[in-house]
Amino acid sequence: MILEDFLRYVKIDTQSDDASESTPSSFKQYDLLNLLQKELHQLGVKSEIDEFGRLYAHIEGNNAYDSIGLCSHVDTALECSGYDVKPQIIHNYQGEDILLGISGLKLSTKDFPHLKKAIGKTLITTDGTTLLGADDKAGVAIIMDVVRNVLAMKQSERRPLSILFTPDEEIGRGPEHFSLEKFNCKYAYTIDGSDPLHVSVENFNAESMDIAIHGKSIHPGSGKGKLFNAILLMNELIDLLPENMTPYKTEGREGFNHIVSMEGNVELARAHFILRNHDKEKLKEQVKDFERAKKVIEEKYPGSIIVLVHKEQYKNMGEVIFKNRDCMDTIENVFNKLDLKLEYTPTRGGTDGATFSFLGCPCPNLGTGSYNHHGRFEFAILEEMELMSKIVTEIFRL
Ligand SMILES: [Zn+2]
Fold first, then answer.
1. Which fold has domain 205-314?
2. Contact, 98 vs 116, CB < 8 A?
């Protein structure tokens, strides 16, 4: 059932659009939202799609308990087309390299060691021309499966369930217009990760840093000791930053400074960085590194002007979750009951759940059994999606 749902959802193109100012950013996201509403209706579950394209639904349970929420996003990433997705299904996978249709691309165990986990299982891949859209339609299919499982329980024997399907997660606008009142739950889980045994209760703290350097331009023939070339000053400033703090050199809980763009001429050079760290204090240190570098350059080249503007982008949800541990206790109990080993893995990015957490709804992220998101090498493992559905279903069983 979960496979049929998943295949039906990935065939609907729901790519979001970062150039659009409308909400949702692309109206084709309604194609899936409307279908989900219809399917919920057929199961006897009432839902509301609000004017911002957020679908909210509720399933009553034993009202001595607070409702718990589940959230997935319906849009797919910008990096790769999600139009006319033609999934390949490989039953009883034997660990060989997989040709993606006739595209010439190959999913190999050498490049993607995760594939080894899928031996003997059912794999769903792309045909090499599009992404798969398992991010996050695997999450959507898991939630719909959980809905059926929960409805099969007696009302007195289940916890109330709140559902939220959002558009525009991939362009960072998923939490826009979020209504805790409509979601109406004590805490929630986004189902938007990869490995089913990995739970994320932390994401990065994030800042942006813009640098503008005003140099001093005079005729280069008589520039000795007087011409401050803004481009060269920018290079020097960047050289003063910690050398090992780049995405290329960091993993796990290590933070980074990532230069995203740079442009300039002799008079004016600009650079845009993003700064990331799970630890708030260490992120402050990263900002100070930029301030120290600015001071060094300004002192070395008197009269040059350097402007730094840093802005908070999002915060680590761990700050909220560690003070409201019910959502962790619940998922830990489920893993114990099912005799599974839970691993907490910090997300190296942001999550919609971070914003929900700071708006009063603590929201860890759970896996979907899908990997290599945002591109043509994306794949899902059916048995892992089924395991995730089983785990999430147990959250609601009293
Ligand atoms: Zn996602």
1. Alpha-Beta Plaits (3.30.70)
2. no
Among residues 5, 13, 17, 75, the one annotated as catalytic is: 75
Q: What share of the chain is helix, strand, coil (3-state, %, to 5)?
A: 35, 25, 45
Say which CATH architecture domain 2-202+316-396 belongs to: 3-Layer(aba) Sandwich (3.40)
Question: Which residue blocks in 152-229 are alpha helix, DSSP H?
Answer: 180-183
Based on the residue annotation, tell me whether 394 is a catalytic residue of this protein. no
Residues carrying CATH 3.30.70.360, the chain: 205-314
DSSP code for 371: E
169 has catalytic annotation: yes
What does the pLDDT profile of the chain (398 residues) look like in tens digits?
Answer: 999 999 999 999 999 999 999 999 999 999 999 999 999 999 999 999 999 999 999 999 999 999 999 999 999 999 899 999 999 999 999 999 999 999 999 999 999 988 999 999 999 999 999 999 999 999 999 999 999 999 999 999 999 999 999 999 999 898 889 999 999 999 999 999 999 999 999 999 999 999 999 999 999 999 999 999 999 999 999 999 999 999 999 999 999 999 999 999 999 999 999 999 999 999 999 999 999 999 999 999 999 999 999 999 999 999 999 999 999 999 999 999 999 999 999 999 888 999 999 999 999 999 999 999 999 999 999 999 999 999 999 999 99
DSSP state of 216: B
* 168, 169, 176, 386: the active-site residue: 169
Residue 344: CB partners within 8 Å, gap ≥ 6?
Answer: 198, 199, 200, 201, 202
In the chain, list all ranges with CATH 3.40.630.10.
2-202+316-396
Task: Give the residues across from 73 on adjacent strands.
Answer: 166
Q: How far is the CA of 191 from the centre of ligand 1 (A)?
A: 8
* Protein residues within 5 Å, CB atom, of ion ligand 1: 135-136, 192
Contact between 383 and 191 (Cβ < 8 Å): no
For the beta carbon of residue 120, count every other beta carbon within 10 angstroms. Answer: 11
Assign 320 to helix, strand or coil.
Answer: helix
